[in-house]
Specification:
The complex is a heterodimer of chains A (109) and B (116). Chain A is mainly beta and 109 residues long. Chain A contains no helices and eleven strands. Chain A has strands at 4-6, 11-14, 19-25, 32-38, 45-50, 54-58, 61-66, 71-76, 85-92, 97-99, 103-108. In chain A, β4 (32-38) and β5 (45-50) form a beta hairpin. The termini of chain A are far apart. Helix content of chain B is 0%, strand content 52%. Chain B is globular, with a radius of gyration of 14 Å. The N and C termini of chain B lie far apart (37 Å). Classes of the chains: A mainly beta (109), B mainly beta (116).
Chain lengths: 109, 116
């Protein structure tokens, strides 16, 4: 059974801090990894994709991948209240991704 | 930009009705997916399609069927709606691409279905 595990949270951080979101995956054959942001009542929105070990930066977001440890993380720098949402981690081996259940992030002023 | 659209944002139906949910994508993607999302249960795959007229069952296909007559369109059908099918339904699409490509899924806005 392929699984992606995330802490459900909520993770609460003050405005301006770094938010660190983590997930682990079970399928060693996974090739690509994704982070989605989902606001309450809305659909998931893709914010980061990564398939190579190491870091990938895009604006305030950094995705980190460690295939040896089967670990993916998302760092959000200078967190804003508008970043408050649920963040879904996903891994893809074939063309069907496996999603985690998401981590709720709350950024308080 | 990839665009995935769904026929309705909100839908209210009665038990026993036949319900059609439609999804259209404009990026020539090979793969299309239907999920439902319920609090505490995450995204659950109902059906997916990797080509026109092809379909595969996902994790929870019972009570649902699908149709893909054109590459850009993927329909979800509830033959006889029941109250336990009240949920948020999400359509997604992705390309097949090559081994090193991301093949990300892009989601439509979702349909909040209520079955009374």
């Amino acid at each position: 059974q392929k699984e992606v595990e995330q802490n459900s949270g909520p993770l609460s951080v003050p405005e301006g801090a770094i938010a660190s979101l983590n997930c682990t995956y079970s399928d060693r054959g996974s090739q690509s990894f994704f982070w989605y942001r989902q606001y309450s009542g809305k659909s998931p929105e893709l914010i980061m994709s990564i398939y190579s070990n190491g870091d990938k930066e895009d604006g305030r977001f950094t995705a980190q991948l460690n295939k040896a440890s089967q670990y993916v993380s998302l760092l959000i720098r200078d967190s804003q209240p508008s970043d408050s949402a649920t963040y879904l981690c996903a891994s893809r081996g074939s063309y069907i991704p496996t999603f985690g259940r998401g981590t709720s992030l709350i950024v308080h002023p | 930009d990839v665009k995935v659209t769904q026929s309705s944002r909100y839908l209210v139906k009665r038990t026993g009705e036949k319900v059609f949910l439609e999804c259209v994508q404009d990026m020539d993607h090979e793969n299309m997916f239907w999920y439902r999302q319920d609090p505490g249960l995450g995204l659950r795959l109902i059906y997916f399609s990797y080509d026109v007229k092809m379909k595969e069952k996902g994790d929870i296909p019972e009570g649902y069927s699908v149709s893909r007559e054109k590459k850009e369109r993927f329909s979800l059908i509830l033959e006889s709606a029941s109250t336990n099918q009240t949920s948020m339904y999400l359509c997604a699409s992705s390309s097949t691409g090559n081994f090193r490509s991301y093949n990300e899924q892009f989601f439509g806005p979702g349909t909040r279905l209520t079955v009374l």
